[in-house]
Amino acid sequence: MLAKDAPLRAKICMLMLSVLVAEAVSAQSLASIKALAQSVQHFRASFTYTVSSPYWDDEEEHTGSLAVQGAQYRVETGTDVILSHGPDTYVYRPAENQVLITTGEPAFSPVTLFGNFEAFYEAVAMESVQYVGVRHHTVLLRPRDPDASVQEVAVWLRAGDGMITRVQSVDVNSTTMDIRLVDIDLNPRFAPDAFDLSFPESAEVIDLRS
């Protein structure tokens, strides 16, 4: 996918696979989880993510940074800068001097997963776990669209503040992605141009909006 396909990377930025044996999610507990997740819409963090597949010999590992402010987000990796104000998403690839533009909020984006996952996914199981020494709610999500490219997502939410600290997913090709957030700042001061994207005039612009 994922790591090698930039348009698909633009839809993901992050997330990934977990098989949970847990209690069914009640309406009350799901409402609580949704409220927690939606309470965090302004933060900055670093992340590591690994991509693996039963068809590959080696696991890929990458690092990057993520900034979210309401409906805006900026993801930087070693190869891409991904920026969205909604509804358009821009992917700048400096090595290729290329910019890809897509439209519509993808199901696998920071804005969706960090604040509006119920629009694309249903929670089918959850449990309380200790993760990095802190109590978390782990929620297993399945897509509402049976033909979605991502077939299963698990998210780890800190019980105290609702911050998602880990996302794991598996897609239709059995590719697994595991994203872990670190150095989380819930009170960042963003520069006025933090969510602006600049690139050379010579860059090739590929507009994939319909």
Q: What is the highest CATH level, the class? A: Mainly Beta
The H/E string reads: HHEEEEEEHEEEEEE
Radius of gyration: 17 Å
What's the CATH architecture name?
A: Clam
Compute the separation of the termini in Å.
22 Å
| CATH topology label | outer membrane lipoprotein receptor (LolB), chain A
Strand order of the largest sheet: 7-8-9-10-11-1-2-3-4-5-6-12
Shape: globular
Overall domain count = 1
What's the mean pLDDT score? 77
Query: Main β-sheet: number of strands, strand sense, barrel status?
Result: 12 strands, mixed
- Tally of DSSP β-strands: 12
* Helix-strand makeup class: mainly beta
Fraction of residues in H or I helices: 10-25%
Number of helices: 3
Low-pLDDT residue intervals, each spanning 5 or more residues: 1-28
State the fourth-level CATH superfamily: Lipoprotein localisation LolA/LolB/LppX
What fraction strand?
over 45%
Q: What would you say this structure looks like, in words?
A:
By secondary structure, the protein is mainly beta. It has a single domain (6-207), classed as Clam (outer membrane lipoprotein receptor (LolB), chain A), CATH 2.50.20.10. It contains three helices and twelve strands, in the order H-H-E-E-E-E-E-E-H-E-E-E-E-E-E. It has helices spanning 6-12, 27-38, 110-113, and strands at 42-52, 60-69, 72-77, 81-84, 88-93, 98-103, 121-131, 134-143, 150-158, 164-171, 176-185, 204-207. The longest helix is centred in the first third of the chain and has 12 residues, at 27-38. The protein is globular and about 50 Å long.
